[in-house]
Automatic annotation (TrEMBL):
GO terms for biological process: regulation of DNA-templated transcription. It comes from Marinomonas alcarazii. InterPro entries: AAA+_ATPase, AAA_lid_NorR, GAF-like_dom_sf, Homeodomain-like_sf, P-loop_NTPase, Sigma_54_int, Sigma_54_int_dom_ATP-bd_1, Sigma_54_int_dom_CS. Residues 1-30 are annotated as: Disordered. Keywords: ATP-binding, Nucleotide-binding, Transcription, Transcription regulation. GO terms for molecular function: ATP binding. This is Transcriptional regulator of acetoin/glycerol metabolism. SMART domains: AAA (SM00382). SUPFAM superfamilies: Homeodomain-like, P-loop containing nucleoside triphosphate hydrolases. Residues 361-588 form the Sigma-54 factor interaction domain. It comes from the Bacteria.
Length: 671
């Protein structure tokens, strides 16, 4: 009874204040609120306090592949960070765990007092997510993106209440979450120092990743309020190119300086020029003023590889290139009068792994091939692009590919979802603001998204959702090519390639008075229609291609011809986004077995049912062959298979969600 009452209290508290972990408001949650929200999520996953942990253990071969993918993270943690804490950890009965961003344990160090690996589950290949293991330090840190300590009785599953877990996420140089560092120890040992230590260790890993990525050819500045702490892991770190532009920074630097540091020049942060940094003795710390008011000690770490660079005056802004010489080709077939201009072919820049090459955006659809060719050509012209297409059709994927195959690829692509920003914040987010420009404005001000896209590409998705007042200001920016932040009288020039996208018919929006006509004609240079997935003639090849890309990210089962046929028949109302979701869920459920229909989510078959194409699906066959109703069948199978949800779902011909649903109904009826 006590557990039931405790569960109801946790649920009521969580329901009254459930906060989206991905939102900024998550940072204001108290520790108690985060635990309550986690318990509520566990209930939604169909767990109860007596559930057994489902670690979804990876096969040994898959784990080896995963370890190889994270070799740099593992080596950095083991060789460059853990030795600093060896003395402290050797006196504690605890286990250090490194997990990837999906919660899979990559490696462990230390000797716990809480039993064998089979008992505690902290072994390589086990997955510690909230869905399978309930509230736990690793899984909850992954969902919230924040460090957290989960006490003995704060674990949702009783099976995990033998320990205390302290976990902190690890972010790479692109600010992407790449893993979690965890310290798990006996629940009856003192834990005062553990939480602070795991946060410090994760910062240490992040700092070493920055040094590994940039130390060869970049200047690195370490700064702190105390000169003796310059080499500590709590110091702020800035990475500078030879011109003094900040190309990377650690989280500590952004917290201490309370400013967006991306692509600022060092003279905008400290009272020093880059030429002074280059000529300053590297072993001698400097005392500098930051933001005009804060005093810091700064240490300069020069590039390991000193590169001799010859001055190139052509890089000056006022440089005008001379006209290209003309080459006269003389032979018997071409008379001397014929002249051919010598042209330089631009070098193709390497594109990131998460960007699809232009040539792979289409797989036989003539319509898509034509619009890709048109858009690629227009990217080098001062002509805006307007993309029409349904939600999830791949507009942002298309834009990312265009950007990284253009001459602007070395600069930023800034993607703005106009529908996702609250109407009252759109103006300040786009155009920036001075400090104190309005109530609630950050003290440090904001550069704004348009200025951040300077020399790069600005992608305004769902532009039809933009408020009328903001449309007027955007039109002025596009006409005058300058941005004036809120609360400022200073105008900043901007050079952007504008790409807009919408799932609305903007001409009708103009007629209804919801979209400015002058702005419509300013953004609609090249109009292209990105076809829905169901309309594409290369659907089968596209599904194969996406499936193979997902298998490269995480090993999964092959696609049989029957499964491909089923996927091709689907109407895909959610387009590419829905396809990727279905494939990911199916591959995760199959766990390297052959991908079968019961591995796919229920809503996949709901769409097929709606169009009358699933009369012969696995779930339909199971329902027709079984005389026993699901509310009786599923509890019976769960009992036979000793609570194995996957085996129950496969035998019943339903999804895991359906198993959870009927199992929960049974529990409620018994109560």
């Amino acid at each position: 009874m006590q557990d039931e009452e405790e569960q109801k209290q946790q649920k009521n508290a969580a329901e009254s204040k459930v906060i989206d972990p991905s939102s900024e408001t998550n940072l204001t949650q108290t520790h108690k609120e985060r635990i309550q929200a986690s318990w509520y999520r566990c209930e939604q996953f169909g767990l109860d306090h007596s559930s057994r942990p489902d670690f979804a253990t990876l096969p040994k071969g898959t784990l080896n592949d995963l370890v190889d993918q994270h070799r740099s993270l593992l080596e950095t943690t083991e060789n460059e960070v853990l030795p600093y804490y060896e003395n402290i950890l050797s006196n504690s009965a605890c286990m250090i765990v490194l997990a990837d961003r999906q919660g899979h344990v990559l490696n462990t160090w230390g000797q716990p007092r809480f039993g064998s690996a089979a008992q505690h589950g902290l072994v390589g290949g086990n997955q510690w997510t909230e869905m399978g293991v309930g509230t736990n330090a690793i899984g909850t840190a992954l969902i919230t993106g924040e460090a957290i300590q989960v006490g003995r009785d704060e674990h949702f599953l009783r099976a995990n209440r033998f320990m205390v877990g302290s976990a902190s996420p690890i972010y790479n140089t692109k600010n992407d979450l790449v893993g979690v560092l965890d310290i798990s120890s006996d629940a009856y040992l003192p834990q005062d120092h553990t939480f602070g230590m795991v946060k410090l260790m994760s910062l240490s890993v992040e700092n070493r990743l920055i040094f590994s990525a940039f130390q060869q050819e970049h200047f690195i500045l370490s700064f702190n309020t105390n000169v003796v702490s310059l080499d500590s892991h709590w110091s702020g770190i800035l990475v500078l190119d030879e011109n003094g532009t900040i190309v990377s920074a650690n989280r500590r630097a952004e917290v201490v300086l309370a400013r967006d540091l991306a692509l600022l020049n060092i003279n905008q942060v400290f009272d020093i020029e880059m030429r002074e940094i280059k000529h300053h003795p590297f072993s001698l710390p400097m005392k500098l003023i930051a933001m005009g008011r804060y005093q810091f000690y700064v240490k300069v770490i020069p590039p390991v590889q000193q590169i001799m660079r010859i001055p190139d005056f052509r890089q000056r802004a006022d440089y005008i290139a001379p006209s290209q010489p003309e080459v006269i080709v003389m032979n018997e077939k071409n008379p001397p009068k014929e002249k051919i201009k010598k042209a330089e072919s631009p070098s193709s820049a390497a594109i990131p792994d998460n960007v699809i090459p232009l040539s792979e955006l289409q797989h036989g659809d003539d319509r898509v091939e034509r619009l890709v060719r048109q858009a690629h050509k227009i990217m080098e012209k001062d002509i805006p692009i307007l993309i029409h297409g349904e939600t999830g059709a791949g507009k942002e994927i298309f834009v990312r590919s265009l950007h990284y195959h253009s001459s602007r690829s070395k600069e930023m692509l800034v993607a703005v979802n106009c529908a996702a920003i609250p109407a009252e914040l759109v103006e300040s987010e786009l155009f920036g603001y001075e400090k104190g420009a309005f109530t609630g404005a950050q003290n440090r001000g904001s550069i704004g998204l348009i200025r951040r896209a300077h020399h790069g590409t600005l992608f305004l998705d769902e532009i039809g959702e933009m408020p009328m007042a903001v449309q007027s200001r955007l039109l002025r920016v596009l006409q005058e090519r300058v941005v004036t932040p809120l609360g400022s009288t200073e105008a900043f020039p901007v050079d952007i390639k504008l790409i807009s996208a919408t799932n609305r018919i903007l001409k009708e929006e103009v007629k209804e008075g919801r979209f400015r006509q002058d702005l419509y004609y300013r953004i609609s240079g090249l109009n292209i229609e990105l076809p829905a997935l169901r309309e594409r003639t290369d659907k089968a090849e596209l599904i194969r291609y996406l499936h193979e890309r997902l298998r490269k990210e995480e090993p999964g089962p092959a696609l049989s011809s029957d499964m491909l046929e089923l996927l091709v028949r689907h109407p895909w109302p959610g387009n590419m986004r829905q396809l990727a979701h279905v494939l990911k869920v199916g591959m995760a459920m199959a766990d390297e077995e052959e991908l079968e229909e019961w591995h796919l989510p229920d809503d996949f078959f709901d769409d097929l049912d709606a169009m009358g194409q699933v009369d012969d699906s696995a779930s339909s066959k199971a329902a027709s062959e079984q005389d026993e109703p699901l509310e009786d069948l599923i509890p019976r199978l769960l009992s036979e298979f000793k609570g194995n949800v996957s085996q129950t779902a496969k035998t019943a011909g339903v999804s895991r969600n359906t198993v959870y649903k009927y199992a929960k109904l049974k529990d409620e009826n018994e109560e």
